[in-house]
Specification:
Elements (H helix, E strand, L loop, with lengths): L12 E7 L11 H6 L8 E5 L5 E9 L1 H4 L7 H6 L3 E5 L8 H10 L15 E3 L7 H19 L7 H15 L2 E6 L2 H4 L3 H7 L7 E7 L5 E6 L1 E5 L8 H4 L7 H15 L7 E11 L11 E3 L5 E3 L7 H14 L4 E6 L3 H7 L5 E4 L2 H13 L5 E3 L16 E2 L8 H13 L5 E5 L3 E2 L9 E2 L4 H12 L1
Parallel strand pairs: 1-3, 1-4, 4-5, 8-10, 8-13, 9-10, 12-16, 13-17, 14-15
Antiparallel strand pairs: 2-3, 6-7, 7-10, 11-12, 14-17, 18-19
Pfam family, one: Peptidase_M17
Protein name: Leucyl aminopeptidase
Organism: Paracoccus tegillarcae
Length: 457
């Protein structure tokens, strides 16, 4: 169930926000607060009893400026830590972003309960004055869809189920959808998608969704590898443990589409969504190291590692997208371990040759607490992806610049689009954090949602 804000402020309990070692508001002060040891450190809660032993409100610690730089969505801790019921902010301290506070509260309500009962009722917040309630609930709705898709194991979220999720969303928002799968991928000229997915238990496919008939054109491409064994270059067991998340790019794109539709953004653009959905599996017909495959674009690709399959399925989808010369083409993919080594799980790198687009996206990412970091399409590394016997190499050796060379590979297939942006996301929260329980998580969707008015015009 998606969270909602509490409707009636009159019946809600007050919540006072207190900085670390800051003054406690007079109406909430007393010996009880002193005795409890409340100091205002980030996430600390002090429940305030009334004369009859019930609750009259609570204090919540906001920490200090140094602590605030070390995390985001601190208010999400209040949603998780307060007793169930309705709460209102008794004050809005200077410097508090009410949108981030309210969104963090909503995101804290997420739990993945498909196979196990959730944690029960949580505290609800009366929406602070001045926020756009519908927009924040739309963002939370899209994010929850992304998390659910990633968290669902591959036995229930293979290519068939991912296609059905896309069809369900299309029906909800009034989009058109078409799917090319199985041997039709060969006849329709998507050879790389077919080659990667043909060994899977379910047929590989390309999902193609469209909505909107006027305005600038935006194409979103999401990597939909529903499980990645590594293929014949089989991953070690420890590396395979969370590979249900390898469709995190597709999940993020679908969540973003829901945000765009629910906020009305799709009324002002022509949006297309392309998701190559496959399993990278091991079987007698699996593609092999050393194979040379011909892509939709006509470029030949030498396969030096079958575990670098994501860029292959994206290549055919990007080629199709670029054929219509969209104003903006964006790919989301859980693509490289190199990106995690460089920036860790929280900060996805993104690549873009257009400075104005990149600046708008990075600025929006910081504004909405959805961090991104720009990395370069470094042209001097182009020879690294050029093997001896084919046009491009899907896994250049040497172990250096892995995220950059993957982005350079993709850029070759995106040529023809007005502008191209690639995001190398992780799609997974390895440890619980405020508003982000352990498991699947969207990255870069809220940043793009905020940046699009400037980027698309």
């Amino acid at each position: 169930m998606l969270p909602e804000f509490a409707a009636n402020a009159d019946d809600a309990l007050p919540l006072w926000l207190v900085a670390r070692n800051g003054p406690v508001p007079e109406e909430a002060a007393g010996d009880w607060v002193k005795a409890s040891g409340f100091s205002g450190k980030a996430g600390q809660i002090c429940l305030l009893p009334d004369a009859k032993g019930g609750l009259r409100g609570a204090l919540f610690g906001m920490g200090d400026s140094a602590q605030s730089k070390r995390g985001r969505f601190v208010m999400a801790r209040a949603a998780s830590g307060l007793p169930a019921g309705d709460w209102r902010l008794a004050d809005l301290p200077e410097g508090l972003d009410p949108d981030e506070a309210a969104l963090g509260w909503l995101l804290a309500h997420y739990s993945f309960d498909r196979y196990k009962a959730g944690g029960g009722a949580k505290a609800r917040l009366v929406a602070p004055k001045g926020i756009d309630i519908d927009r924040l609930q739309a963002i939370a709705s899209g994010e929850f869809l992304t998390r659910d898709l990633i968290n669902t194991p591959a036995n229930d979220m293979g290519p068939d189920a991912l296609e059905q999720a896309a069809r369900d969303l299309a029906a909800e928002i009034g989009a058109d959808i078409a799917v090319t799968k199985g041997d039709a991928l060969i006849s329709e000229n998507f050879p790389l998608i077919h080659a990667v997915g043909r060994a899977g238990a379910q047929q590989p496919r390309l999902i193609d969704m469209t909505i909107g008939d006027s305005g600038p054109t935006l194409v979103l491409v999401g990597k939909g590898v529903c499980f990645d064994t590594g293929g014949l270059n089989l991953k070690p067991g420890a590396s395979m443990g969370i590979m249900k998340k390898d469709m995190g790019g597709a999940a993020t794109v679908l969540g973003l589409v829901k945000m765009l539709a629910l906020t009305g953004a799709t009324d002002r653009m022509r949006l297309r969504v392309l998701i190559p959905a496959v399993e990278n599996a091991v079987a007698g017909n699996a593609f092999r190291p050393g194979d040379v495959l011909t892509s939709r674009k006509g470029l030949t690709v030498e396969i030096n590692n079958t575990d670098a399959e994501g860029r292959l399925v994206l290549a055919d989808a990007l080629t199709l997208a670029a054929e219509s010369a969209p104003d903006l083409l964006i790919s989301y993919a859980t693509l490289t371990g190199a990106a995690r080594v460089a920036l860790g799980p929280d900060i996805p790198p993104f690549y873009c040759d257009d400075d104005a687009t990149a600046t708008a996206l990075q600025s929006a990412a910081m504004d909405v607490a959805d961090p991104l970091w720009r990395m370069p399409f470094w042209d001097p590394y182009e020879p690294m992806i050029e093997p001896d016997i084919a046009d491009v190499d899907n896994a250049p050796g040497g172990g250096m610049a892995g995220s950059i060379t993957a982005a350079l590979f993709l850029r070759r297939f995106a040529q023809g689009a007005g502008r191209y942006v690639h995001l190398d996301i992780y799609g997974w929260q390895p440890k619980p954090a405020p508003g982000r329980p352990k498991g699947g998580v969207g990255q870069g969707a809220r940043a793009l949602l905020a940046a699009l008015p400037e980027v698309l015009g």
